[in-house]
């Protein structure tokens, strides 16, 4: 019934509103130029990506480093009006006709948030995303992320046809009221960086945890778990799992390998949490996405070695991170999901490390450095203040980075320079490019 109603109502709305849609399209074209529509991949039902469609509301203005300016500086007067009235969402009716969205459901968020969700937060993907939802009529962007996720889960548990009609009717009134459009001091909703593990409830039983991988990085996680348990019995280590048993190496901890990923599915009730013990960024992100897909309810605790020195009061640490022995981090650091900070590395003030990135032993990340998603920072390397390292880049062992590094580039040497295509990697750099599953 829900799909029939969605399809019928969306087609009727597109026909009735077609003059308005054409007028808005013309205004956007005159104000912002081409393209008229904003298209972006968003996770939908069960986390599957689809292309979400909206009217464009922002310019593509960038700073001297090629990075997009903050939303507040790119949002135009027309764009602000479209957002305030929610008219920018009307092209999403096409997504409803395609079956990618519903009229009512949790709003589709950014794909990088998937790896930052707790198992409870991931439940919002048990239904199709919506043009409007329970959050939109109960505070919208004036709510914080925890409040939003709680409301999303309430809708998932109580959804019905009559509740959808109630939400649609209340949405019309909410648009005229224009309440909760943004949080104070923000043009748009602040980025979701994950739930700080310090905010979770204390557990009375040790968390039964399995480490994904069986090599050196995995053993370091197990060593950290042992050190934590000497202070407080928080974890019960069950063993290792790997994605492919045939790829185990002689130096891997074979005797404690429980099996491959099929073992996880067959024994789901025997463990509570997973940790990724793989030291290559692309593999960490791939494994996290794969395991999230068929084990959406599993926990991903962030593991911090007791000897690490971190200002936890100001730090923002997402799920699935590992901070090894002797790591030093000063104030206001941000670690996105599944970051690995190996033993003895240092992170300066306001440093930000992107999802899945790996900072190897002895690396020095200076203050204000921004490292994007999936970056490999080599052993003993140094990145100077306020530099930006593009997604998928590699900083070679011992390199000293004195300027920004573009996306996907490998830099070597002192000072660091891009590696020529025919330039061989050292044995240490080759080691850093290997991952054991």
Keywords:
437 residues; alpha/beta; Rossmann fold; eight-stranded mixed β-sheet; six-stranded parallel β-sheet; disordered C terminus
Please tell me about this protein's structure.
The chain has 437 residues and is an alpha/beta fold. Among the domains are: 2-177, no CATH class; 201-294, 3-Layer(aba) Sandwich (Rossmann fold), CATH 3.40.50. It is 28% helix and 18% strand. It contains 11 helices and 27 strands. The chain has helices at 2-16, 18-32, 71-74, 77-84, 92-98, 145-158, 161-177, 216-231, 261-266, 281-294, 427-432; strands at residues 37-43, 49-55, 102-104, 130-132, 207-212, 235-241, 257-259, 273-276, 303-304, 309-310, 316-317, 322-323, 328-329, 334-335, 340-341, 346-347, 352-353, 358-359, 364-365, 370-371, 376-377, 382-383, 388-389, 394-395, 400-401, 410-412, 417-418. Strands 9-12-15-18-21-24-26-27 form an 8-stranded mixed β-sheet, covered by helices on one side. Strands 10-13-16-19-22-25 form a 6-stranded parallel β-sheet, with no helix packed on it. Strand 26 (410-412) and strand 27 form a beta hairpin. Helix 1 packs across helix 5 (92-98). The protein is globular and about 65 Å long.
